[in-house]
Amino acid sequence: MRIDTLSPAEGARTSAKRLGRGIGSGLGKTSGKGHKGQWARSGGGVRPGFEGGQMPLARRIPKRGFNNRFKKVYLIVNLSDLADVPEGTVVDYGFVVSNGLAKMVKNNVGLKVLGDGELKTKLTVKAAKFSQTAKDAIEKAGGTAETVE
Q1: In whole angstroms, what is the distance from residue 115 CA to residue 41 CA?
Q2: For a Cys-Cys bond, which of 10, 12, 72, 130 suits 135, CB 3.0-4.6 Å?
Q3: pTM of the entire structure?
Q4: What is the rounded distance in angstroms from the CA atom of residue 15 to the CA atom of residue 125?
């Protein structure tokens, strides 16, 4: 292959419309613009979304919701999910994900432990956040609640 033999794929390049070159071309006289009116004028036409003065669809429909790009989303696990974990286990983000103890959340920033349920086993729990009830329940069972970033 040589650079001087390269050419565009068949049909990739089309020649420009030659407007106003006689009636035989099919694009003579009015050059495909019909007779008079907004679309026949130079620079004529309307902006995208313009509906002839009628209230546009984008403005007729009510505004709804807001997505905060900077919101911190945590992977939530309750104490009831940790009830079956063997005693002495170190429960951290990796453990929770590998054992499927919490529902995965897109773009999460860490693990958050909530106090729903009862914990009777001694565990070392490492998470980004704890609710106060979860922290108290873990320590009451003889375990430790460590905050990790």
Answers
A1: 70
A2: 130
A3: 0.58
A4: 69
